[in-house]
């Protein structure tokens, strides 16, 4: 078994619904351009307010993926 | 366009339901006395336990709002 | 009223559903072996990805419980 | 039982005597203008020196208090 | 000499010019409603970008002021 | 001389008197069930307030103790 | 309105002039290859010294930009 | 597949040889009393000095292990 | 001399041998696709355990490289 | 009024009595060799345990002093 | 080429003008007594307020310098 | 037994070989000018890269030593 190297990219997912949905939206978007996604870690939970209500949850994520030989 | 100043207040919202509900309860309460709420940031997620179950989620929030000339 | 001492144990709860469920699963498991659970604090929210989707949410928790005389 | 919201205010208490006295002085002062004080947390312990001796202990405190309907 | 208590308020000053100007704007605004301002501490330097240029510097500040007997 | 391994346990000591007493109470309680206590480190100083006064100091402690062969 | 995802890239801008110039140089360079730059955050201010004088300011920056469908 | 819960214990491994040996010594000791060890994380690297030389490396470790039904 | 801009990428190198080998493996892999590597910084040392032994060291690294005009 | 420069030195004061005494002992010792001591800040509170009791409090301190022209 | 050792000293530079000037003042002062200054890092930006205006910027700096054989 | 005071100095040791060698080099250099070295703590592991390889490991260290009466 070889010694893999992983790359960590940082994204911010958003949703008007919930924290969980903001995470899922961010992971969905990342998976469209990156292969071998392996783990994520939440770095920050923020949000935008308008008219005294939450307009968007914004969740910072570090996303790790395994580098392949061809990457 | 003028250079706005914002004030940041720190609150703890609580809910027996979920983390999202604790955040919404805190924002709702803040919006009853503060105008121009602009963003929030989660600083801490804690909770109170009783009989081996979660009785209350308690979510620390920093809430930013724009100061007006009359404030 | 006596001056209680509390012990803090660190666990990681997991769930394929949501952050809230991962917390509840961890607290449920802790309550099977520890009495007098008093509070929890989230230390980290991570997760495992497979096929570009969230396979498991993993939530780090510090859980505090009151020590009794007999403990 | 309703879901309370708490506000957290940050103060610095001081004393020429001791750390404990600086905390008590800060809490005493806060309790003159704020009701329903619920908890405090020490954020920083500093002090001012003069002639090679401690002139004042300065203790940073976050103080949480429960918001009432009328606040 | 009495043992003073200080309050710490958190603001965000902004400027389209520079970091120093954002700090000054925030302090100027705070001094319009608060007396006895004593010190500040920078907590964060951020900014808003548009068309690949800095539109606003946003500087987080903790501002400490001495509480008087009448406050 | 062998290479010892230590275990670190986290507790919260409390006292209605002072920070020092809360630390001593926590260490006293830990020494009733753990042998070879070697060091402690304060992780947090908090407290509970009631009627505008400090009801309990609560001091978080990490306590290290040397594992013996038989542990 | 759709739920945007942002990517955060980390750069270090440098200047022999000032902190503000180092930030602007870094943002200018980033805007040559990245579209939709939205915000930045300073993570670190360092510098290189030679002959007892500041030769270069080096400012660490996180820069966020909105991902488009085609990215 | 069930939703596992993990427990995290904190230890300090030591060695007169090297950092790597201190980690291995700590893990070896932990594996004598704990089953299902799953991961570790280094929290601190310290050491004891005597006669101007390193007498012991002391490496703080968080060690995670999967709880079984019977634990 | 021009004012260079650097980019910082985050990777995780792994090795079944040692921390130093995990760092070298990560740097080796990064140097296959990135030019002008200039510095690295260790952000985290973790590892995977199996059968009570270290199966892989995993070392988080920030790696800085100088951007060229053509990048 | 000239723009002073301060130097910050880090010490650890100890006492078998209390945290306050450990701070005073450290400041007393520093004042024997350093002039113009201006402030201190507590960075860490630890202690050594023996026979289940606190043998020494050890308090980490940063101590700032004003540099004079002749220093 | 030998393996150099560096020492890191911590200072606070001040200026009534700007952050950049406070850094330069601190570096200028350090260079009067220390040779081979190599780098600096900003650890804190604070300031003193009087009459609602900034009287002094105070910038904390870590300054690294290379030790020579004769030091 | 008297209440000792310790001083903490910060250095950076370097080596082209390994992290352990960089630590040893730093401690060796410190022991040439300081007596009564008592402990060290690693604060940072960095390194310089050239031609895609590690040229120098640079390890930040805090080194504590006991002050004697004559110091």
From TrEMBL, chains A, B, C, D, E, F, G, H, I, J, K, L:
InterPro entries: Dodecin, Dodecin-like, Dodecin-like_sf, Dodecin_bact. Pfam families: Dodecin (PF07311). It comes from the Bacteria. This is Dodecin. It comes from Kitasatospora paranensis.
């Amino acid at each position: 078994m070889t010694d893999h190297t992983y790359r960590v990219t940082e994204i911010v997912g958003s949703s008007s619904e919930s924290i969980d949905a903001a995470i899922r939206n961010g992971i969905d978007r990342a998976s469209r351009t990156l292969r071998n996604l392996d783990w994520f870690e939440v770095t920050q939970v923020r949000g935008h307010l308008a008219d005294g209500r939450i307009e968007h949850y914004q969740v910072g994520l570090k996303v790790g993926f395994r580098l392949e030989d061809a990457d």
